[in-house]
Amino acid sequence: MNIYKMELERVKFVMKSYLRVRLAKIERNLIYIIEKDRSELLSEAEKIFAFNILENRKKHFQQSFFEKVPKELNVLE
């Protein structure tokens, strides 16, 4: 029974590790995914995650930087 529990824990660990790496890659390559329209490679949950990150980054940059830049230089407007 202990061997089955160990194997189950190992499989859980591998799956969690795989998902963490996949989310990190999505986060790291977010601009490429959005610009090249590679979102068909993502699952629905990953698409939601990617677009949420994109929106949150836009809000952050808008609030922390672009509000202080003149309108004619603001590329997000």
Describe it for me?
The model has no long low-confidence stretch (mean pLDDT about 90). About 5% of the residues are buried. The protein has one domain: Methane Monooxygenase Hydroxylase, Chain G, domain 1, CATH 1.20.58.1030. It is mainly α and about 80 residues long.
Provide a brief overview of the structure.
The protein has three helices and no strands. With 77 residues, it is mainly α.
Helical content (DSSP H or I, runs of 4+): over 70%
Query: How many H/I helical runs?
Result: 3
CATH topology: Methane Monooxygenase Hydroxylase, Chain G, domain 1
**Domain module tally:** 1
N/C terminus separation = 61 Å
Strand content: under 5%
- N-to-C series of helices and strands: HHH
Largest sheet: none
Q: What is the residue-averaged pLDDT?
A: 88
CATH classification class:
Mainly Alpha
Assign an overall shape: elongated
Known CATH architecture: Up-down Bundle
The unreliable regions are none
From the alpha carbons, calculate the radius of gyration and give it in angstroms.
Answer: 19 Å
How many extended strands?
0
Key terms:
77 residues, elongated
Indicate the topology.
Elements: H1 2-28, H2 30-35, H3 44-64
